[in-house]
């Protein structure tokens, strides 16, 4: 118990986060214009980079300040640190409940849109990159914690499917906020989809990715900020509730079937070595 | 692909007690308050009350996670508490909304990402390196597919 408390009250860690937060907020939002729109750099992205820069696993010299036990202590704090943010999102959704109910069918059905990863990523992984059964774990979902649990349960994390889901999980952890901020910035300014649709798509079942996605969207279309946050937040709650079922009963069976249909059934033994 | 990553499982998070959660939340909210004061023109006293409201919502959500037998992640419960307390039909919701408005939503995510950056473990870097460029391309397509798929379906039914 004492050890847990030492970890929770790791002053070196919290002080570092405080300083990083101040620096990141002082820099503020920066917009970089590109051809089809602009990419928005957000304080939360700087905070992640600054966190990496003082991480001894990334920068060896950082070990003089942040030790291994600080790194270990930080991990369980991530989900706690996102809680006030999630609470704030709740208070944005509540007042807009009538508009959310109006958008109900779209909001519910767009959860199925998470299967888009199978349409876009899976064929590339199997046919173009010639990946083996790794591609099943990698492509059936956006690979956040509940999806890892599905793969761990069905194949074990030592399997090729496990390696696939872990690979995408780690890339998502390292680059997910950047990727979603860029996606949202580009689509917000490209005008292909309505802002409401893009807002709903931001709810992918990860607090930090949603933050990056909605932050970029709301900075691009500030006059619709409240609506963006409410729709994204509602979609995110739905994903928390439905994501695991969509994964187990729809996404994973489809991915398995497609893998066989693509004629890779017999390659499982040799692939991924 | 080797199997050196088998010990690494992010779903096996260390379970912290409710009191540990309560304490970390105090620290996180204080950092959030500093961030909010730096990022916006909102007076620190107003932001303070706003964060107390968000703290209480988070704690109610955590209590529900422990007490209700339905298995939902704590963030789902916290969302639901935040939603229920601010519905137009909930008495007193206007006061709660007014307080929460004094906290900038994006600023609250900043400390979380700082912890996330510091928490990156050697195993995660090893996995990223050993998985190589193929998994990077796939991961970008996975995220793009999820986003565009959801946006396209939402667009159809809006």
UniProtKB/TrEMBL annotation, chain A:
Alphabetical keyword list: Membrane, Transmembrane, Transmembrane helix
Membrane spanning residue stretches: 12-34, 40-59, 71-92, 112-129, 168-192, 198-221, 228-252
Keyword NADP part of the UniProt annotation: no
InterPro entries for this protein: DUF3100
Pfam families xrefs: DUF3100
Keyword Cell wall biogenesis/degradation listed: no
UniProt-recorded name of the protein: DUF3100 domain-containing protein
Source organism of this protein record: Pelagivirga sediminicola
TrEMBL record, chain B:
Stretches that traverse the bilayer: 16-35, 47-65, 72-90, 96-121, 133-154
Origin superkingdom: Bacteria
Keyword annotations: Membrane, Transmembrane, Transmembrane helix
Keyword Membrane: yes
Entry protein name: DUF340 domain-containing protein
Lineage of origin: Bacteria, Pseudomonadati, Pseudomonadota, Alphaproteobacteria, Rhodobacterales
